[in-house]
């Protein structure tokens, strides 16, 4: 990296400061004195440079210095950074009784995920404990110089206007790889701008999520530091005044929107009293129990080079795990929890609302006119899905949990009985409202049944709109808004080939053990196993694009591999998790699959093939095919 003139000396100064802070010179003097005492007492030999370096290396001082300097040289002197260190946790009382894990033993872990101004970080997993041993540092870029004035560096006053918080999400992963959202916290980092010598230590109390959003789950010790150090800090009065002003501004905007929403709802009920029972959702609670306008959960989201097409985006969303928000106690009530995007993608699973919000955001990013629909499916179960409106008036429904698409063809209730009406293929029954990041429409047609709905959103006799200005005042990203910024999506960290091999080996062992218990021997046919690959690739291609290809070659290859007088049976199955035992147990529940795995007969040969398809974040589609041939 070629530094602009004057910046080289800035970097030297930083390194010098860092060495002074570590008191490197003092430590070298101590080692020198100690080495001379130990080595040179008997005959006054010369102490060479090599001896000194060896002594420094043995005591770990060189490693310490290199670690610190590597960190300092990562700092581009033309940018401002916030160095956030997590220095352990305490009072995670739920893990008070947890025994210390033995070396090599698999245990539950905590992972901390951070998002700040389009940058994402993840801590090393640490064992769950009452005092979890977090020791991680994250270098967050606050500001990079514009190309204009090359020598100008932003000062504390300018940084005070950067109101993005650091969003921290704590995830617990159990011994089976299942994830739980523990806490979601927005850290106000700007207090460091008023800290003496630019360093501040904070104890952050994390509260639970959902029904436990008022309960403390633990405390994290956090240290904040500015790099390069600020030449002049602000007074605490200035920062506190700024925070108060921002809070007042947000509160006032939210109050005005609430007044408007109440007025809109009154007008909506005046159209027809039965509207009271329609699913018109204006606000929804996030994981921290905060009520936010539904439009704020959506934002056009670009996937960069991670996803190429809208249908591939729909496939990605469908392989993120589905899990309803946990509810304490019975009664069948649904606990409402619309997660912020970071909490959803870090946990890698969520409710149908989380899936629909993410899919709608991705489709908007691809330039489509997309909306989230709130309504019901069969048996009156409340549900959300996504709808896109084509320029030619075509309405397409997208089911975010499966990736399926349905073209909507409305029934005309005024047609005479002889006219054949289209049969709806989609599972949706009623629809109360549709919304995206800029628009909100309440359904005011005589019936809210989806099959007779006309989606002409510009016709105010069918859809009552909300003021775009009112929505913009509380939902637009940027200054003085309580809406968390959207994080970028990250590439997958899963090695698909290695994971496929691991799962396949584990499944072979499980099948052999299962057959051994039944008194059956197992002979694997590696060639037949390999021939199953094209079928699995074709299944995934069909899910991602809607196009099936390559079936003829697969069938031809299988016919050649199975001699005359032999029978072939195959069973494909699809999962979104990578737990071999859980997958095997599910497979055995299918009578058809169990028949293959427990096959008896003459010259029985078994085959299994696993193919993992990795998607952004840690989402994956896992296809498994069991097969057998026998005479």
UniProtKB/TrEMBL annotation:
Primary location group: cytoplasm
Domain CEP76 N-terminal: 10-69
Residue ranges constituting the CEP76 C2 domain according to the UniProt record: 74-231
CEP76/DRC7 peptidase-like domain residues: 336-466
Any Gene Ontology biological process: regulation of centriole replication
Cellular component annotations (GO), alphabetically ordered: centriole
Keywords: Cytoplasm, Cytoskeleton
Centrosomal protein of 76 kDa C-terminal domain residues: 494-631
Endpoints of the signal sequence: none
Localization per Swiss-Prot or TrEMBL: Cytoplasm, Cytoskeleton, Microtubule organizing center, Centrosome, Centriole
UniProt cross-references to InterPro entries, sorted A to Z: CEP76, CEP76-C2, CEP76_C, CEP76_N, CEPT76/DRC7_peptidase-like_dom
Domain of life of the source: Eukaryota
Family statement drawn from the similarity comment of this UniProt entry: Belongs to the CEP76 family.
Known function: Centrosomal protein involved in regulation of centriole duplication. Required to limit centriole duplication to once per cell cycle by preventing centriole reduplication.
Protein name: Centrosomal protein of 76 kDa
Native species: Chrysolophus pictus (Golden pheasant)
